């Protein structure tokens, strides 16, 4: 029986059914339709890309659908999908073992195991982390009875959450001096601020997602706790009802430059004999949990949401293998997506890109990059087998990301926050309150990056200006003049 278990050898194996893993499997399948490929995923739902649209040379848009893992085998018949968790990898022997003890041999493997949420006070009964479908369902369930929540974190997840929650007071505790600072600067944050407490326009939003049974419904009880679902896709918050118990739309208070000092249960709070901070317009009540912030403010709430980012999920793989790991905990990969361990590749949130980056690209753990890395890794894996040379994909030439914050379209290009420019730059700004916010980062007269909020229609022109590095010194004063058609100008 054991000998039979050891017999399966695959040319290509992939760990993870998130965007990176699925993109890698699909690309491998199309490049090598005759080769058997193995995809092992802990989650019963895989993340598939739908409605892919290339907006420009580097900008792309797509929806992320959750599909049952079996659907992968229908679309790509040479991909065998196994829904289980890889518990160990012995790269020297080119084997991996899954939860039930079955071992598979591979020739090349790609790790796409994503990230794990950095939840503060992880096991606290009143602290929830947001990461996958299951955790969002848990959040919605609790929110339904909530009058007030406290959200910690200042990235994309916290931003979307704070915007979407209605019928519940929100205290948003951030460690920076402006909101959403993982993506935008203080100026853009100011532009968004009026939206924080504005009533939301409710349209009949069409559901972009295909509805499938969620992980929560499929998983047996004993696996729910242990199984890690894929990170949610970009539209995770759009079609979800996030409504609390109160008859209010938005009621948000931001505490800037703070961290959580102590979390108290109701009993612990009483014992401290401290007094809760009050806020005009916010209810005063008894709460199940209290949070003391580093600025001395102390707020009660129904529960705390920890949205403080992710750490690469490397654990089962680092046990038996000597991977080079980056300072942020990711598996270091070279420009061929190879880790430091032979025949082991990595893509998506689990990896850290360790090649000399193009001046206008940087890694951010986002769904676009997960897709690009997954697909490009497949090309690298095949090129190695065929002894071919593969050059770094064009998508790594310039950072480009489209998203939506506070109902506005947001496009980030190149070094949009002057990352790495250390003061050696100037900024051009144009803002029309409630309509658009445009920021351009220039160095020595050339465009290094841009933030475009609203329907600016400048993305293609600015993308070209960043890629071409044209000297804009003579046009600097007119660059953001709304009366000049830049597209015509630079054609
Ligand atoms: P994941 O999607 O995390 O997939 C990892 C896969 O590996 C899963 O299928 C998991 O089950 C599997 N796995 C893990 N360990 C094992 C194991 N041992 N054995 C087998 N399988 C295993 N990005 C954006 O660009 N825009 C957004 O608006 C946005 N919003 C987000 C909102 C939330 C709440 C979160 C959590 C993330 C968001 N992101 C967003 C980030 C984006 O979702 C991730 O960057 C992207 O999904 C990463 O894809 P991945 O394939 O690398 O990892």
UniProtKB/TrEMBL annotation:
Q: Pfam families attached here?
A: Pyr_redox_2, Rubredoxin_C
Belongs to which family? Belongs to the class-I pyridine nucleotide-disulfide oxidoreductase family. PYROXD1 subfamily.
Start and end of every FAD/NAD(P)-binding domain? 11-164, 282-374
- Keywords of the record: FAD, Flavoprotein, Oxidoreductase
Q: Which SUPFAM superfamilies match?
A: FAD/NAD(P)-binding domain
Q: Does the keyword Nucleotidyltransferase apply?
A: no
The top of its lineage is: Eukaryota, Metazoa, Spiralia, Lophotrochozoa, Mollusca
Q: Which organism is it from?
A: Mizuhopecten yessoensis (Japanese scallop)
Q: Which PROSITE patterns match?
A: PROKAR_LIPOPROTEIN
Task: List residues of the NADH-rubredoxin oxidoreductase C-terminal domain.
Answer: 404-469
GO terms (molecular function) for this protein are:
oxidoreductase activity
Q: What is this protein called?
A: Pyridine nucleotide-disulfide oxidoreductase domain-containing protein 1
Keyword DNA repair included in the entry's annotation = no
Enumerate the cofactors the protein uses: FAD
